[in-house]
Amino acid sequence: MSFNFLLDAFWAIVYGYQLKNVANENDAEDITIQTFAKAFNKIHTFNEEYQFSTWLIAISKNIHQDILRKSKSSPVIKSSKADDEAYKVIDDAPSPEDTIITEQNLAKLLKDIKQLKPKYQEVINLRFFQELSYKEISEQLDEPMNNVKVKLLRAKKLLAEIIEKNKS
């Protein structure tokens, strides 16, 4: 089966499931794309005794639970006063050192992005730097939304390979 066929056939099922869970279109789209990316990386583990849609939903559910788990582990400390039950959130403002590191990492990332083909640079820029939705990107590029999703998925995979290669 081709990637586009599977996206077309099962996108609505997974996206609909996640939209009910997260009640946010962008989050539902992001989780759905992560689901398909993970499914295609693990396609060899699929058991044909089960329905493909059930397998995708299970992957999607696990991704969503991982996201929830990570968000619940945010640092919180109890107040030092015994009679005060209020919680204080640890100050997470970046230190000057953190700011410099972030700027250096961003510069490296931009350098890595420039190694991608222009069509991949464009979708990365529109999605992550201009923070456009898939629909907005689709309209701006005058391409079907599924093409945008596939192109973005491919761009992220290629970028990850470039980053990994540059580490060594």
Automatic annotation (TrEMBL):
Domain RNA polymerase sigma factor 70 region 4 type: 113-159
Taxonomy, superkingdom: Bacteria
Keywords: Sigma factor, Transcription, Transcription regulation
Keyword Transcription regulation among UniProt keywords: yes
UniProt cross-references to InterPro entries, sorted A to Z: RNA_pol_sigma-70-like, RNA_pol_sigma-70_dom, RNA_pol_sigma70_r2, RNA_pol_sigma70_r4_t2, RNA_pol_sigma_r2, RNA_pol_sigma_r3/r4-like, WH-like_DNA-bd_sf
One of the record's GO molecular function terms: DNA binding
RNA polymerase sigma-70 region domain mapped to chain residues: 11-72
One biological process term in Gene Ontology: DNA-templated transcription initiation
Keyword Nucleus: no
Record-stated family: Belongs to the sigma-70 factor family. ECF subfamily.
Record's protein name: RNA polymerase sigma-70 factor (ECF subfamily)
